[in-house]
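Good morning,

Both structures are done.
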Amino acid sequence: MRTEPIAARHAPVHGLRLFGLGLALAWLLLDQATKWWILEYVMKPPEALRIAPFFNLVLGWNRGVSFGILGGHELPPWTLAMFSGTIAAALIVWLLRTRDRLVVTGLALVIGGALGNTLDRIHHGAVTDFLDFHLADWHWPAFNMADVGVVCGAAFLMLDSFVRQDRDAA
């Protein structure tokens, strides 16, 4: 039987929640700050800036889903914003219920990224993309820091599923 106070048993969970919510907010702010910098200073006037032989800064507007999927269809920006916001809310609930630091980290990055792109859709009617990696004439679709958070967060969640399988098997 445990003799420590209830607050002591739950302190790490509260700290983990604060860490997750703080990381989500930090990633959201990083995303919005980089988009603001690109729009207000770097792309005045809009042009492609070669940074390295494999990397440019460009200005693009994604009116579709990830990497421009459904971009040719005229979906109202609020539809995708509501969809992203709903997913972010569900992920926040998951974050508040989990006790695993890797899962919290992954969820926080996905939440911060989803909210960053949601704010773009609300404010601009589209998502601001500006990172352009390429190999010769083959260009990956332009993306932003919110997308980096979503992809890295999803990778952390997948890594956790493999680590958890290994722990459960042992």
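Second structure follows.
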Amino acid sequence: MTILILGLLLFLGVHSVRMVADGWRARQITRLGGNLWKGAYSLLSVLGLGLIIWGYGLSRAQPVVLWEPDLGMRHLTALLTMLAFILLAATYVPGSRLKAAVGHPMMLGVSIWALAHLLSNGSLTDVLLFGAFLIWSVLGFRAARRRDRAAGVVYRAGTLAGDAKVVVVGLLAWGLFAEFLHGWLIGVKPFG
């Protein structure tokens, strides 16, 4: 569990700098240069993610079960993660009204992803992992929206065609991940 906690602290800590110390971050980017900052940020993120994956795997070997989720929660989790993937697609596929409306669809998508996994998993490891990501993403979404308002950010209006692309890309990514990659990477096959 210690490795998982260290990974979460490192990964989410690096990703929280803008939330809690935006001025310090800006000074460091100026002092170090954008490329060095991005390199250090990326290196620490990858290290944190590696520790999360390793720690999660170790912790799952001896689970501490807090509750047994209802089997029906798997269906709700599938639906919510599908929505999370669509929001993730809205982050990268240009021209969607969804991005214009939400502003930060990745943060909202991570919140929905984490909540979905909390509903269908009842071990201490899962509560720690998904609970940490849920708290971080809710706080991050709020901070990003506050920054947008303070800076007067207005997102370009999207189109129906842009929304259609986002939905198609999100559904394809969700389907491929759920059917093929989730079992291979996580060890759990959502659809059997």
